[in-house]
Each structure stands twice: as structure tokens, then as C-alpha cells.
């Protein structure tokens, strides 16, 4: 099993696999300060809800180190300002704001220490967030593997692998676990227009791991589901509302509706940090709209005529009624989601 490490903080800089360049080129993008990190998140050098949470945390560390020599008051103010900028780099995935809030809580709790002590403490917290995400991925994979039948054909959408997390993956982590525990599974991976995370990233991870898979145009998935070719669908999430409505990559809702029509189990795999207990339902989730050129161009080559208008939402919301279960590091959460997610929020079994 090749552990793909897409995020590395060393010698006071943050290095990221540049996912815009994969699969043709494996190169690192260097972040010297929090503005580089903001760009990396916005331009999808790094993407994937858990991954941008980890990267956002390290962005705050870079900010603290760059403002180290300021007065304590200016230092705290500048770090908080940088954190706000990072937290707003992409609006839909809750993990980013979750990580930023966690880092700000640590800053607040240690604001009476010296600037350099605070830098050290923030770096340790960012490392904790990264380490915990990897552990979380492994737990999600183990629980998810329990619902993967031997010999199953699994459909997945977008990229939810090591590139989208601190390593191993969420939905793709379940697929890895099923493969490595000898379940003899095979995968259909949606290409996932327009940014092609499936074709460029998931396919790359599956090839690296020699997991039997076929890449398909997004519109093939409904036909495979209708024809009984898919045993189970497992996808990721960017934000799960308290009632279980889930925001994920555009195209997920369509898959869930067709899965429901043809009685194919449809699972979300996500860490608990992706559950937003403050958001009551999917209606309240902000859906990021991205640049028109993501649709009108591929690799910089224009494929649609000048002058055509574009609507490019990066996510859609799957209603909780379409979701068979939510695979988390604490087990699989089943309906009724409002009741069960509220119990999780309140720390009840
Ligand atoms: C475990 S990644 C979760 C989620 O993030 C991806 O979105 P993006 O590539 O725009 O960052 C996709 O929705 C994945 O399912």
C-alpha cells in the first residue's frame, strides 16, 4: 500500500502536491505564508474537505511565524486576521472553518504566552489535526468495510482519497480497506466534470494501488445503476447538516436519486468534523459557485464558444432521505438522522 502524502510542513514552509498538475506531473507547491495557502485552497492546488482543513491549520502556523516579531497585540490581531482570510477561502466544506476555529481556540487559550511559544503550540495543534485526520480515515475505512460485500462493485464520485485528506481517504479509504482485506472488489469511478477529480485524481490513486477500476463519464453511472451493475455507492461529503442533508461534489444528488429509484445502497463516508451541527438542513448550506472557465476550458484549451453564459456550482445537496448511512470514525450513523446526529452532538450514545 503506497501512503500518498499530499501535505508536508517542514523547515517553516508548507509543501503540497499540486493537484492541478496530476496525473501528468507530480510536483510540489511551496507555501511560504498564509496568502500562498489561501491561493492554494482557492485555486484547488489542494482540495478535499479534510485536506483543506489540515492545510488551513498550517496556514495559520505560517501566519504566526511571519508575524512573530510584532508586538503581542499586533501579533494576535494579525494571526486572527489571517485565520479569517483562510477560513473564507472556500465556503462549502465545513472542515476548513472547523480547523480554523480549533486553531483560534488554542490561540485564545495561550494568548498570555510569548509569541514564539504560541507559534510552537499552534504548530503542534496543526500536526494534531493532521495526525487525527489520518487516524479518522483509518477508522472510517474499517467501519465502511463492514458494509462492503465480498466481490462488490463500488461506484464512487469525485476524489475522496489520500489527496483529499491527510492520507488514506474517506470513501476511497473504504475502497482501499476493502481491497487490502481481500474482498476482491472492483470500482467504477466517475470522471467528475468539470474539474475531473475522478479522472485525474481518483484514477491516479487507484492505479497507484493497483485496485481494479474503470473510469467512466459521469453520465454512464445512471445506466450502470439501472442495469444492476453497481452493488453499492460510496461518496464523500463537504458539509453534513443536522438533519443528514449532505453537500458534496456536483453530481452526487443525481446519483443518490437514481440509486434510490433502483434500490442501490448509497453511503456517505466522512469524518465527524464534516458534520455541521449548527446547520439545520441542506437549504442552509452555501454552495460555492466557481469560475466559468472551469466549464468552458479543459487544461486551458477552450471547448465552448466565447459569449456563452455558464452556471458552475461546485456542489449539490443530497437529501437525507436518499442516504442509506453515514460512515464516520465512530461507526455508521443511520436514519433518523436528525435524532441520531442530535444525540451525537449532545454526546449521547
Ligand atoms: C474527502 S473529500 C470530500 C469532498 O471534497 C471534494 O470537493 P473539492 O474537490 O471541490 O474540494 C468532493 O466534494 C469530495 O467528496
Low-confidence stretches: none
- Structural class of the secondary elements? alpha/beta
> How widely separated are the two ends?
34 Å
Which ions and ligands are bound to the chains? the ligand CSC[C@H]1O[C@H](OP(=O)(O)O)[C@H](O)[C@@H]1O
- The CATH superfamily label of the largest domain reads Translation initiation factor eif-2b, domain 2
Using the coordinates shown, work out and report the CATH topology of the largest domain: Rossmann fold
Number of helices: 11
The secondary-structure element order is EEEHHHHHEHEHEHEEEHEHEEEEEH
What does this structure look like?
The protein is α/β, with parallel strands linked by helices and 349 residues long. It folds into two domains: 7-138, translation initiation factor eif-2b, domain 1 (Four Helix Bundle (Hemerythrin (Met), subunit A)); 140-345, 3-Layer(aba) Sandwich (Rossmann fold), CATH 3.40.50.10470. The chain contains eleven helices and 15 strands. A seven-stranded mixed β-sheet has the order 6-5-4-7-10-14-15, sandwiched between helices. Strands 1-2-3 form a three-stranded antiparallel β-sheet. It has a three-stranded antiparallel β-sheet with strand order 8-9-13, with helices on one face. Helix 6 (171-180) links the parallel strand 4 (153-156) and strand 5. Helix 2 (49-66) packs antiparallel against helix 3 (72-87), helix 2 packs antiparallel against helix 5 and helix 4 runs antiparallel to helix 5. The model has no long low-confidence stretch (mean pLDDT 97). The chain binds ligand LNRAV4D5. Residues 47-50, 158, 160, 164-165, 170, 197, 235-238, 248-249, 314 line the site of ligand LNRAV4D5.
Amino acid at each position: 500500500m503506497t501512503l500518498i502524502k499530499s501535505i508536508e510542513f517542514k523547515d517553516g514552509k508548507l509543501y503540497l502536491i499540486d493537484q492541478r498538475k496530476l496525473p501528468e506531473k507530480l510536483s510540489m507547491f511551496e507555501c511560504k505564508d498564509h496568502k500562498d495557502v489561501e491561493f492554494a485552497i482557492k485555486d484547488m492546488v489542494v482540495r478535499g474537505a479534510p485536506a483543506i482543513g489540515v492545510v488551513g491549520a498550517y496556514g495559520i502556523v505560517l501566519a504566526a511565524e511571519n508575524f512573530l516579531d510584532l508586538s503581542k497585540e499586533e501579533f494576535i490581531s494579525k494571526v486572527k486576521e489571517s485565520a479569517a482570510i483562510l477560513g473564507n477561502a472556500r465556503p462549502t466544506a465545513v472542515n476548513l472553518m472547523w480547523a480554523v476555529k480549533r486553531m483560534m481556540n488554542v490561540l485564545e487559550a495561550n494568548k498570555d504566552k510569548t509569541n514564539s511559544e504560541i507559534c510552537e503550540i499552534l504548530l503542534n495543534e496543526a500536526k494534531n489535526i493532521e495526525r487525527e485526520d489520518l487516524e479518522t480515515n483509518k477508522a472510517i475505512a474499517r467501519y465502511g468495510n463492514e458494509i462492503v460485500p465480498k466481490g462488490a462493485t463500488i461506484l464512487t464520485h469525485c476524489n475522496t482519497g489520500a489527496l483529499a485528506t491527510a492520507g488514506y481517504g474517506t470513501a476511497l479509504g473504504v475502497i482501499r480497506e476493502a481491497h487490502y482485506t481481500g474482498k476482491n472488489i472492483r470500482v467504477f469511478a466517475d470522471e467528475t466534470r468539470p474539474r475531473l477529480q475522478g479522472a485525474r485524481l481518483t484514477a491516479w490513486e487507484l492505479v497507484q494501488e493497483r485496485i481494479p477500476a474503470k473510469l467512466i463519464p459521469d453520465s454512464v453511472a445512471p445506466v450502470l445503476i439501472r442495469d444492476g451493475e453497481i452493488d453499492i455507492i460510496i461518496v464523500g461529503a463537504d458539509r453534513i447538516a443536522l438533519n443528514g442533508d449532505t453537500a458534496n461534489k456536483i453530481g452526487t444528488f443525481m446519483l443518490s436519486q437514481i440509486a434510490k429509484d433502483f434500490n442501490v445502497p448509497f453511503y456517505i463516508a466522512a469524518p465527524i468534523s464534516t458534520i455541521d451541527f449548527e446547520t439545520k438542513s441542506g437549504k442552509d448550506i452555501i454552495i460555492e459557485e466557481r469560475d466559468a472557465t472551469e466549464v468552458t476550458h479543459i487544461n486551458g484549451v477552450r471547448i465552448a464558444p466565447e459569449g456563452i453564459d455558464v452556471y458552475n456550482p461546485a456542489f449539490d445537496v443530497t437529501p437525507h432521505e436518499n442516504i442509506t448511512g453515514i460512515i464516520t470514525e465512530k461507526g455508521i450513523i443511520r436514519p433518523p438522522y436528525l435524532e441520531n446526529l442530535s444525540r451525537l452532538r449532545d454526546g449521547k450514545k
